[in-house]
Design brief:
The complex is a heterodimer of chains A (182) and B (247).
Chain A lengths: L1 H10 L9 E2 L3 H4 L1 H17 L2 H108 L2 H22 L1
Chain B lengths: L1 H17 L8 E4 L2 E4 H22 L8 H21 L7 H20 L5 E2 L12 H23 L15 H36 L5 H31 L4
Antiparallel strand pairs in B: 1-2
Helix pairs in contact in B: 2-3, 2-4, 3-4, 3-7, 4-7, 5-6, 5-7, 6-7
Chain lengths: 182, 247
């Protein structure tokens, strides 16, 4: 009876207070239950894969971002090459345009030259023509003047004797001319 | 005679078995104050656990988090989520406060439920979760009060006190009373829950040392986690409430 109660007492024995120390009573300090609880906690904690999910989500996000980045870079590259192409085309167009303008200019200048030359010719011709006309007029005037003078001279100093002499001289001259022509 | 001593022994044994220490403290004398040494010791351990694990977790940060870093980032995300839901858009500066509250209370509670504190024997009292002591929870609750007053005053200046007569001036006494009931309810809820959890476990262990306390201990883990969450959520809610604009 005493043994039983003693064991019972020692079972619930609380080490008396007083100083720091370690309580070695396994039942009072409860490590068995604690380890079971800890084990259950870890077991069920492992079952819940919040952390794995999170990691997976982060990985997916990173992968998606990488893909998006790759796509964006590709698009950028494409856009750049297109820009380059368009730039060269623009350059070509500009060069072409310049040469076209140059050609146009040249042809315009040439045609203007031709027109100018023609005008020059016209001018020269007109001048010559005018000159010719002026000369003719002068000639005509001089001729008329001479004729008038001759007529005056003839009218003033022509008498019968002279008249006759002249006629005979002329007849003689015509006669010689006729002889010569014959 | 023999029988008498035997029966006395038996009674003493029975008394010892059901003798659960409550209100026994390991007093330290610091500058005229009596402080509860066991609470300080366990608080230091909790602080060391938090600081140490956080330091280890962030020592070598990776782009793709693994192990400890992943876990701590998850915890941080959780805390940010709680603060954001309760405080609103301007939750950023309050994440450290809410996070400190939540982590300290959570690790304290769980340390009480998981660590074999009783292996270490003190001259007086026994080691338990720091939140098992009313002083810790009152300190935390008062910090929360200070925090929400600070939040309201910095956000709105003296206009903050306008909320006391907010729906009608008749409610002024109740609104003032609220400032006292908030820390009171916060501290008592946490203290009561944790103390009750631990007491139930201790009593059960002293009655049936094996297997039977395990469900209660698991329940204790659950409730202590919930209590930490409740405390953090309420602190964030009070801060958010004092910062929100009145319409």
């Amino acid at each position: 009876m005493k043994n039983v109660t003693d064991s019972f007492v020692s079972l619930g024995h609380w080490p008396s207070a007083g100083s720091f120390g370690f309580n070695t009573d396994i039942l009072a300090t409860n490590p068995i239950n604690l380890s079971v609880v800890l084990g259950v906690l870890i077991f069920f904690g492992k079952g819940v894969d919040l952390l794995d999910n999170r990691k997976q989500r982060i990985l997916n996000t990173i992968r998606n971002s990488e893909e998006l980045r790759g796509g964006a870079i590709e698009q950028l590259e494409k856009a750049r090459s297109r820009l380059r192409k368009v730039e060269t085309e623009a350059e070509q167009f500009r060069v072409n345009g310049y040469s076209e303008i140059e050609r146009e200019k040249l042809t315009l200048i040439n045609s203007t030259y031709k027109t100018l030359e023609q005008l020059e010719n016209y001018k020269n011709e007109t001048i010559q023509f005018e000159q010719q006309r002026a000369i003719n007029q002068v000639r005509q005037r001089v001729f008329q003047q001479a004729l008038r003078g001759a007529l005056g001279t003839l009218n003033s100093c022509l008498n019968n004797e002279l008249h006759l002499r002249t006629i005979s001289a002329n007849i003689g001259m015509l006669g010689t001319i006729k002889e010569i022509t014959d | 005679m023999n029988v008498l001593s035997c029966s006395i022994n038996t009674l003493k044994g029975l008394y010892d078995i059901s003798g659960v220490e409550v209100g026994q403290h390991f007093y330290w004398q610091i500058g005229g104050f009596q402080v509860h040494g066991q609470v300080l010791i366990t608080s230091w351990v909790v602080i060391a656990i938090l600081l140490g694990s956080a330091t280890i977790a962030v020592r070598n940060p990776q782009t793709i988090p693994t192990g400890g870093q992943n876990f701590f980032e998850y915890v941080l995300e959780f805390i940010r989520d709680v603060s954001k839901t309760q405080i609103g858009e301007e939750y950023g500066p309050w994440v450290p406060f809410i996070g400190t509250m939540f982590l300290f209370i959570f690790v304290s509670n769980w340390s009480g439920a998981l660590l074999p504190w009783k292996i270490i024997q003190l001259p007086h009292g026994e080691l338990a979760a720091p939140t098992n002591d009313i002083n810790t929870t009152v300190a935390l609750a008062l910090l929360t009060s200070v925090a929400y007053f600070y939040a309201g005053l910095t956000k709105k200046g003296l206009g903050y006190f306008g909320k006391y007569i907010q729906p009608t001036p008749i409610l002024l006494p109740i609104n003032i009373l609220e400032d006292f009931t908030k820390p009171l309810s916060l501290s008592f809820r946490l203290f009561g829950n944790i103390l009750a959890d631990e007491l139930v476990v201790v009593v059960l262990v002293s009655l049936v040392p094996l297997v039977v306390p395990i469900p209660v201990m698991l329940l204790g883990l659950f409730t202590s986690g919930i209590q930490a969450l409740i405390f953090a959520t309420l602190a964030a809610a009070y801060i958010g409430e004092s910062m929100e604009g009145h319409h």
